[in-house]
Amino acid sequence: MQIFETIESLQSALSGAAANTLGFVPTMGNLHAGHLSLVSRARGEHDLVVVSIFVNPLQFGANEDLDSYPRTLDADTAALIAAGCDFLFLPSAAELYGDDMQASTRVQVPELGTHYCGASRPGHFDGVTTVVTKLFNIVQPDAAYFGLKDYQQFSIIRKMVDDLALPVSVHGIETAREASGLALSSRNGYLSAEQKAVAPLLYQTIKGIGDALAAGDQDFKRLIQAGKQQLQDAGLQPDYLAIANSATLRPATREDSHLVILAAAFLGSTRLIDNLRVSV
Ligand code: AMP
């Protein structure tokens, strides 16, 4: 695996690589089995696999965990070599944004980005779409792989690619979970042993709602209220819990058949998200 820190060095290696197809996996590092499942999908489908690790300051709010976000480059490098990654791109913020990040151009998907995580984290998705666009332009992949664990992010990127006719196919990969059901996340590392025992309840709650929906329950309001209560009783503070149309992310109606249950909750100061798609 070759490692590049500048756009120029990566692009010169890309133009010299005799590859028919290129698969790309953007990440923020601290890689776990969820990230690596994206890499292995890319590996199975392309001649050349490029992974980026960049903790993107543009997508963190002022009071969020940019400084404490886990950075584990040695372990990540070893895991990517084992997963068959060809090129690892490790840009600095200055390499991507120059010396005045705030003055840099933004890419914004208006409606999809304003609810749920977008409401709780203003500007977050603009940071994501901006960096993903820039990385696409640098790497010029045929396909890019994203986790369905971040379902709103995946929906926004898919729409951005469609709206802007970006020449890349976007793949959503199923969420990797612990045996308890807890979705793998770099932020799980913030949890204490006691919190780790409680955290799986987030998935159990949305799974319970999903089972009820699949069984024909259409009382969305009651399901959400009961779900929020269940989270609170266990010590999880719900940020949002919603049943939405899985294509538009608008609040679900009784006519919708493809639904997604979206959830975010705080456990202490750690914010966990999860979702479950259900067809009824
Ligand atoms: P991150 O490093 O958190 O920005 O994640 C990089 C990519 O990995 C994103 O597309 C995430 O959606 C995806 N990802 C994160 N956690 C998981 C998981 N548990 N299962 C599958 N994909 C994931």
Give a brief rundown of this model.
With 280 residues, the chain is of the alpha/beta class.
Short key terms for the protein model shown above:
280 residues; alpha/beta; Rossmann fold; Pantoate--beta-alanine Ligase, Chain: A,domain 2; 2 domains; six-stranded parallel sheet; 10 helices; 20% strand; globular; binds adenosine monophosphate; cytoplasm; pantothenate biosynthesis; ATP binding
Helices and strands in order:
Blueprint lengths: L1 E3 L2 H10 L5 E6 L5 H13 L2 E6 L19 H11 L3 E3 L3 H5 L19 H4 L3 H16 L3 E5 L3 H13 L5 E5 L19 H6 L2 H14 L5 H14 L3 E9 L12 E10 L2 E10 L1
Parallel strand pairs: 1-4, 2-3, 2-5, 3-4, 5-6
Antiparallel strand pairs: 7-8, 8-9
Bound molecules: adenosine monophosphate (AMP).
Adenosine monophosphate (AMP) binds next to helix 2 and strand 5.
Explain this structure.
With 280 residues, this protein is α/β, with parallel strands linked by helices. The protein has 2 domains: 172 residues, Rossmann fold; 94 residues, Pantoate--beta-alanine Ligase, Chain: A,domain 2, CATH 3.30.1300.10. The protein is built from 10 helices and 9 strands. A 6-stranded parallel beta sheet has the order 1-4-3-2-5-6, with helices on both faces. Strands 7-8-9 form a 3-stranded antiparallel beta sheet, with helices on one face. Helix 6 crosses helix 7 and helix 9 runs antiparallel to helix 10. The model has no long low-confidence stretch (mean pLDDT 97). Bound molecules: adenosine monophosphate. The site of adenosine monophosphate (AMP) has 17 residues, from helix 2 and strand 5.
